[in-house]
Specification:
Strand content: 15-25%
Distance between the termini: 14 Å
Strand order of the largest sheet: 4-2-5-10
Number of strands: 10
Helix content: 25-40%
Shape: globular
Low-confidence stretches: none
Radius of gyration: 19 Å
Number of helices: 8
């Protein structure tokens, strides 16, 4: 049994949050640079160049890459041989978020859903845990803005709708979203499970590197076809029309019931903010 003090988790969350809100990941930057090089729409190309310039300024000045520093999403993959000590795991995660959003001067966006009273420190985070083999802890931090989150959807398809229905659902979601999620978007898709697990799978799909492919060839083909059809929508960067409306589609799946085909589509904006660490 490996003992891990919760203070270590808190400090790790703190560092990941500071980096995620300021810096593009390299796969995301590469995808945006490629989009800029391939875009022939004048307005979209200008917008892509502005996005890249903005990312460089944010990195240099250590300022948020976007003013919406989001709701903190934390995914912990915890080895079953780990024992946490020195306090509460959930409290440690939220303390890491609170410290980072205070020290980084990030916008605090979390509020009560009814009264709309702000919690004042961007907590609580949305925390997901998975139990895995071994004695390691993988931590993923993703600040999720709601310009993109608000355009996400869940479809309870029937099995007869099949692969075509899955792709149609993905493309329809992006089409209806239009310019609202600050395209070019990154699209996370959950396939299977039930109503709630497919939504989690879609969120987790967004933590994959932009440009990666699912290991199953049939699922990878869904990713490729959906991306092709999305980029034929002519939404373009920030809705200015152009060849690149999305920089990637990532699908994750789980077994489902014989009578169902749940599909969740979680949209992410062009700055795919996500940082990871293993303890």
């Amino acid at each position: 049994m490996r003992r891990v003090n919760c203070k270590i988790i808190e400090d790790c969350i703190y560092k990941l949050a500071l980096k995620a809100c300021i810096s593009l990941t390299e796969p995301c930057r590469t995808a945006l640079e490629c989009a800029y090089q391939n875009e022939d729409g004048q307005a979209s190309a200008f917008a892509l160049k502005t996005i890249l310039d903005n990312s460089a300024v944010a990195e240099d000045l250590k300022m948020p890459i976007c003013q919406d520093t989001g709701l903190a999403v934390v995914i912990l993959e915890i080895g079953q041989e780990v024992y946490f000590e020195g306090g509460s795991l959930n409290l440690a995660i939220n303390e890491g978020v609170r410290r980072a959003y205070s020290d980084g001067y990030f916008r605090k966006s979390v509020c009560d859903p009814i009264t709309r009273k702000n919690t004042g420190d961007n907590t609580p985070a949305a925390i997901h845990t998975e139990i895995t083999d071994g004695d390691k802890i993988k931590i993923t931090f993703m600040p999720k803005g709601f310009g993109s989150e608000n355009t996400s959807k869940i479809f309870m398809l029937t099995p007869s709708q099949g692969v075509d229905g899955i792709i149609d659902a993905i493309v329809e979601t992006v089409k209806l979203a239009g310019s609202r999620p600050c395209p070019p978007v990154y699209v996370g898709v959950g396939i299977g499970g039930n109503f709630d697990t497919c939504a989690y799978l879609a969120k987790k799909a967004l933590t994959r590197d932009v440009g990666s492919r699912n290991g199953r060839s049939d699922v990878a083909n869904i990713e490729k076809e959906a991306l092709k059809r999305i980029n034929e929508l002519n939404i373009g960067c920030q809705g200015f029309h152009g060849k690149v409306s999305a920089i990637g589609v990532s699908c994750e799946l789980a077994p489902t019931h014989i009578a169902g085909l749940p599909v969740a589509v979680n949209i992410q904006c062009h700055c795919v903010r996500c940082e990871k660490a293993v303890i």
